[in-house]
Amino acid sequence: MSNRTVSIDMMRRRLELPRAEHWVMRSQAEQRTYRIIVAQPLGEAPPSGYPVIYMLDGNCVFNTMVEALRLQCRRPEKTGVVPAVIVGIGYETESQFSPDRFYDYTPFPNTSILNKSDGSPLPEQGGAEAFLKFVEEEVKPQIESEFNIDRNRQALFGHSLGGLFTLYAMFSRPHAFQYYIAGSPSIHWNKEYLQELEQNFSARVKEEPHHIRLMLGAGELEKTHVAGNCAKACQLSERLAFLSDYGVHAEYKEFEGEGHVSVLPVLIARALRFALHPEH
Q1: Which one is catalytic: 27, 98, 186, 222?
Q2: Quick check: pTM over 0.90?
Q3: Does residue 139 contact residue 25 with C-beta atoms inside 8 Å?
Q4: Strand locations in the chain, DSSP E?
Q5: Which is the catalytic residue, given 160, 184, 186, 258?
């Protein structure tokens, strides 16, 4: 028998995430450009509409959250996760993180930190108010016009500076979302201002109770960082626990053996059960 080589033509195609799309939005007030990435579930939405999770740093872990959700939401009675629309708010870059996040996610500039860890100057800061207005008044109406959304089950997910922004959003506009997930929040960045917002928030919910659930999460290995944000996040959850009679539920979760970046996949898995449980 003669030997012969069989040649197989292989056509390679770019892999895309099913039932996902993205487009560019420019904020009306400041003319800043964002990439909006959306993934929707299979099948018809429930009568009340789909829950929705809005993710900051959409270029980074959008696919991770979408695939984790699709894997788990097939059996909600087993996993505790129902189908939802995922909205990533990112930037027009192929990088995972854009320097624009320093402006969008910080309420005020941090005057005690002038350079990044590599020694380069920090980008512009202090645009959180304008960014939150963009999310509330432009992004959310656009999403709600195109997808069947349950406005009583909206979540905001942010990590690091995005976690700082998540806390800022909850304190300044508690009605905007019902679920807030702040991963490894950079509380040290605007600590004094955040404390002032927290006090105002506490007084506000005592007068006008809100249904708010906050999950603070961090990696165990972050405890050694000089910023002390693990302790700050834990202490925040303990203070907010006194508002449980006014509709505020806060919890802190520390993930064993995880650091500032490696915590993201496990944080996402926990966040899905936190925001998308069938009984909530």
Answers
A1: 222
A2: yes
A3: yes
A4: 20-26, 33-39, 50-56, 85-90, 149-159, 179-183, 212-219, 248-255
A5: 160
pLDDT for res 96: 80
Least confident of 3-12, 126-135, 144-153: 3-12
Does the annotation mark 222 as catalytic? yes
Question: Quick one: 8 exposed, middle or buried, by C-beta within 10 A (0-12, 13-18, 19+)?
Answer: exposed
**Phi-psi label, residue 240: left if phi above 0, alpha if psi -120 to 50, beta otherwise:** alpha
Residue 122 CA to residue 158 CA, distance in Å, equals 20
pLDDT greater than 80 at residue 245: yes
- In angstroms, the CA 124 to CA 136 distance is 22
Distance, C-alpha 92 to centroid of its chain = 18
CA distance 210 to 38: 28
Cβ distance 59 to 98 under 8 Å? yes
Q: Is the pLDDT of residue 262 over 90?
A: yes
Residue 180 in tokens:
């807030």
Which pLDDT score, from 0 to 100, does residue 122 have?
87
pLDDT in tens, 170-220: 999 999 999 999 999 999 999 999 999 999 999 999 999 889 999 999 999
At residue 6, the pLDDT reads 52
Q: Exactly one of 210, 249, 260, 280 is catalytic; which is it? A: 260
Q: Please say if 260 is a catalytic residue.
A: yes
Q: Give the tens place of pLDDT for each residue, 24-67.
A: 999 998 999 999 999 999 888 999 999 999 999 999 899 999 99
Residue 37 to residues 31, 54, 89, 237, 273: CA-CA distances in angstroms? 19, 10, 7, 31, 22
Q: Which are the contacts of 22, defined by CB distance < 8 A and separation ≥ 6?
A: 35, 36, 37, 38, 88
